[in-house]
């Protein structure tokens, strides 16, 4: 009897603590923990109970520390449904917290990449356009690199290849046209004026969005939305008057870029609705990129000729390696920031995406001013700041805008 008294505490203290460690481990599911605990206790029962049935039970009730896990969890009987639900809820809560943190970090990384790719695109693109004065060819190169990336992505199943028909391509064609024109006008403007001024003018995108939505979609803006447009227009006007690099070609092409880009958004609502519900934004952008290359390549050859060749670059006194490398880097950054932008849009609301785009424009303007050492007067900075503040206010007002039902 003494040997039994001394031999029982050792397995009980060692054996009965294992289920407690399993239950506290968040990586195990409650069902698995319960089944393992039950199987283990059954095997222990087969060894200990036949020899010492009464003594083993009395020890489990009298021992306060080694066997406490059995008083709060399942012992030799099946766990109750209430215990399983409580454990499942606790583990689900912990998994939800870790999952939410992971999603937040992932979203923050995407926003960071969005801003970085956009900054480097504007820097490299401006350097190329200052040396190589053929914006149509530069834009076509950007679409060509994007087309190569899309082809690789579909060939190696990095993203699902879409199945589209002629009717869908006809519906996408207007979007491709305005997308092509929007990027072309932006490059023309970047070649004419400072990067910071182009993006200050492009801060007027909300103005064109409101006007076009009212004209073609019947979405009348609220008083708050109209009020938020006042600082945008006023700030851009003030910045334009005091801009050192101002010229009308750069101003109007930036305005045309606003018009075409917002026309694309309106067309996507008006034309693409119910056309292909399974087509996501990334797939749509990939198809538009290929179509833009097909549309713009003949125009570039007809209007500017075949200029992007080593022979021509050397004859123009340009460093061939620098121009080619920076053109390719600008094209890669262009396609990368567009893809990341659509990835973010799939994870957040359009209003949140709009706020992020406003912050991105501020980051691009500041970084370009610092990199190119653009001369900026205090009044010019004030005008830019007012315009960007208006864009931010517009983004916030859109969130509280009531839904308007079409008549």
From TrEMBL:
Domain Sugar phosphate transporter: 106-395
Protein name: Triose phosphate/phosphate translocator, non-green plastid, chloroplastic
GO biological process, one term: phosphoenolpyruvate transport
Localisation per UniProt entry: Plastid, Chloroplast membrane
Record InterPro entries: EmrE-like, Sugar_P_trans_dom, Tpt_PEP_transl, TPT_transporter
Residue ranges of the TM segments: 107-124, 136-156, 168-186, 207-233, 282-303, 378-395
KW ATP-binding (keyword) present: no
Domain of life, per lineage: Eukaryota
SUPFAM superfamilies per the UniProt record, alphabetical: Multidrug resistance efflux transporter EmrE
GO molecular function annotations of the record: phosphoenolpyruvate:phosphate antiporter activity; phosphoglycerate transmembrane transporter activity; triose-phosphate:phosphate antiporter activity
Keywords carried by this UniProt record: Chloroplast, Membrane, Plastid, Transit peptide, Transmembrane, Transmembrane helix, Transport
Membrane topology: Multi-pass membrane protein
One annotated Gene Ontology cellular component of this protein: Golgi apparatus
Signal sequence region: none
Provenance organism: Gossypium hirsutum
């Amino acid at each position: 009897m003494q040997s039994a008294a001394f031999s029982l505490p050792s397995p009980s203290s060692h054996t009965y603590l294992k289920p407690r460690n399993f239950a506290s481990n968040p990586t195990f599911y409650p069902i698995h923990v319960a089944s393992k605990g039950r199987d283990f206790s059954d095997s222990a029962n087969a060894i200990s109970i036949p020899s010492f049935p009464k003594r083993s039970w009395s020890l489990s009730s009298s021992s306060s520390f080694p066997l406490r896990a059995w008083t709060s969890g399942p012992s030799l009987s099946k766990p109750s449904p209430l215990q399983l639900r409580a454990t499942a809820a606790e583990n689900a809560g912990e998994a939800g917290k870790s999952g939410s943190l992971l999603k937040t970090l992932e979203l923050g990384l995407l926003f960071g990449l969005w801003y970085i790719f956009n900054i480097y695109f504007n820097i490299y693109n401006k350097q190329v356009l200052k040396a190589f004065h053929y914006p149509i060819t530069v834009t076509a190169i950007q679409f060509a690199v994007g087309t190569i990336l899309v082809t690789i992505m579909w060939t190696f199943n990095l993203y699902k290849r879409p199945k589209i028909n002629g009717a869908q391509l006809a519906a996408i064609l207007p979007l491709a046209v305005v997308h092509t024109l929007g990027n072309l006008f932006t490059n023309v403007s970047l070649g004419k004026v400072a990067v910071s001024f182009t993006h200050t003018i492009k801060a007027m995108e909300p103005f064109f969005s409101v006007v076009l939505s009212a004209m073609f979609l019947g979405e009348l803006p609220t008083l708050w939305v109209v009020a938020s447009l006042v600082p945008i227009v006023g700030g851009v006007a003030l910045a334009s008057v005091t801009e050192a690099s101002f010229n009308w070609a750069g101003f109007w092409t930036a305005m045309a870029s606003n018009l075409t880009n917002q026309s694309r958004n309106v067309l996507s609502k008006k034309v693409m609705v119910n056309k292909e519900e399974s087509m996501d934004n990334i797939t749509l952008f990939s198809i538009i990129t290929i179509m833009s290359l097909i549309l713009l390549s003949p125009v570039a050859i007809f209007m500017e000729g075949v200029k992007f060749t080593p022979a021509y670059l050397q004859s123009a006194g340009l460093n061939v390696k620098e121009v080619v490398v920076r053109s390719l880097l600008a094209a890669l950054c262009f396609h990368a920031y567009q893809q990341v932008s659509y990835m973010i849009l799939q994870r957040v609301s359009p209003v949140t995406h709009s706020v992020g785009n406003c912050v991105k424009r501020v980051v691009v303007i500041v970084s370009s001013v610092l990199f190119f050492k653009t001369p900026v007067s205090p009044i010019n900075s004030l005008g830019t700041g007012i315009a960007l503040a208006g864009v931010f206010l517009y983004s916030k007002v859109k969130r509280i805008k009531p839904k308007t039902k079409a008549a």
